[in-house]
Amino acid sequence: MDSATLLALDRQHVWHPYAAADNPLPVYAVASARGSTLQLADGRVLIDGMSSWWSAIHGYNHPVLNAAVEHQLQSMAHVMFGGLTHGPAVQLATTLVELTPQPLQKVFLADSGSVAVEVAMKMALQYWQAQGHAGRRHFVSLCGGYHGDTFAAMSVCDPVTGMHHLFGDILAKQFFVPRPACRFGEPCTDDDIAPLRRLLAEHGKQVAGVILEPVVQGAGGMWFYSPEYLQQVRSLCDEHGVLLIADEIATGFGRSGKLFACEHAGIAPDILCLGKAMTGGYLTLAATLCTAQVASTLCSGEAGVLMHGPTFMGNPLACSVANASIGLLLSQDWQANVARIERQLRAGLQPAALLRGIAGVRVLGAIGVVELEQPVDMQRIQPMFVERGIWIRPFGKLVYAMPPFVISDEELQTLTSNMIHVLGDYLHD
Questions:
Q1: Per-residue 3-state assignment (H helix, E strand, C coil) for 100-118
Q2: Which terminus in the chain has less CB density within 10 A, N or C?
Q3: Cα dihedral: 324, 365, 149, 372 (round 10)
């Protein structure tokens, strides 16, 4: 199929995420991908600044990950996980328990990040039901947070400025507190933690759990906050007997400079959600981990089991490539590599702070963010990035980069310099 025909059929039949069906945003046909680059069907090559929504940490077409998929295909591509098990899933669960904080001992392998959050919330609700505290049915979340697109996950996303406020009247009602103003590297003040302290003092007996993205809020605002805040949240949860759910779907596997963002604060959640980079972007897979105490208490309840069972849970292909991706990451000095990317993002994006219309620039690990004063016009700005040979996908007021960890110094310099060029042209046209 030639490029023109492909794009015409795409416009006719394909509904892309967060896009109108009858007047879609610009779409570009990809013919192949390798390393940190995407080759379009028209022959143009783009440096990828998005890692396919933060998942392709090893870039594209990696021989180690390709080999893992090919090897697994020789035995089985899929088998149901109800009543059956297999080596790739057991190995993955064991590895995740070894890598995450010691109290996390049980692993539920789900389909996607949103489903991992749904499972975490079900775990918390069944945990309290099993103890005769069915009134603990609400969750506390941070304003500016994002936890997925399914219904329970939407209910704990930012209720006003988030992507899901249109569903506000029909979603489960949750509690929200302001996101902490203390930035990463700053101390957490009493003003930062006081709203959560007051809420738990007043409504703690109604709360099943506090759910948040540790240290880095992702799609809700790309906000980096003080690890001290996370430490105080853990203490308040312990004080009020509330479960702490850490959503590390975006931050897990090194993106923030630590293997898991909770490590910045030295805390362990009761429930942990992982996804995105776990398979290196090859196949959809997520995991929800919990402590042995949460699992045993939940299973002592009426149902005796966790009431969730995805058809493709524990898919062997996905588990095999996840094992290969984690092994590949840990076989390298990934922390030094992420620090390299952080230095270049910091230097390369800092000139944006001098542009009129820029609200701020912030960098943490392999995450670089330029915040504008006004939301971007995607119809205008997306083609400008492509014309400059880079793939950047802004949202709202945020123009950001989360490049693959394999990106070279030269590619990263080109990526950031062209981001600055585009922003300059866009803001001053």
A1: CCCCEEEEEEECCHHHHHH
A2: C
A3: -150
Domain C-terminal end among 274, 298, 330? 330
How far is residue 271's CA from residue 243's CA, in Å, rounded to a whole number?
8
Kindly report, residue by residue over 390-416, the tens digit of the pLDDT.
999 999 999 999 999 999 999 999 999
Q: How many residues does the chain have?
A: 429
Tell me, yes or no, whether 42 and 92 share the same domain: no
User: How far apart are the C-alpha atoms of 400 and 419, rounded to whole Å?
Assistant: 9
| Radius of gyration, CA atoms only, the chain | 22
Is 117 found in the same domain as 43?
A: no
pTM for the full model?
Answer: 0.97
In this structure, are 172 and 120 located in the same domain? yes
**Distance of alpha carbon 308 from alpha carbon 302, whole angstroms:** 15
Indicate whether 379 and 280 sit together in one domain: no
Cα–Cα distance measured from residue 212 to residue 228, given in angstroms and rounded to the nearest whole number: 14
Residues facing 100 on adjacent strands: none
Clarify whether residues 240 and 118 are in a common domain. Answer: yes
Residue 67, in any domain of the structure:
no
Of 15-19, 39-43, 158-162, 190-194, where does mean pLDDT reach its minimum? 158-162
Structure confidence at residue 23 (pLDDT) = 75
The residues annotated with a catalytic role in the active site are 18, 146, 247, 276
Residue that finishes a domain, picked among 330, 363, 388: 330
130 within a domain of the structure (yes/no) = yes
Residue 289 belongs to what domain range?
75-330
On whether residue 68 sits in a domain, the answer given is no
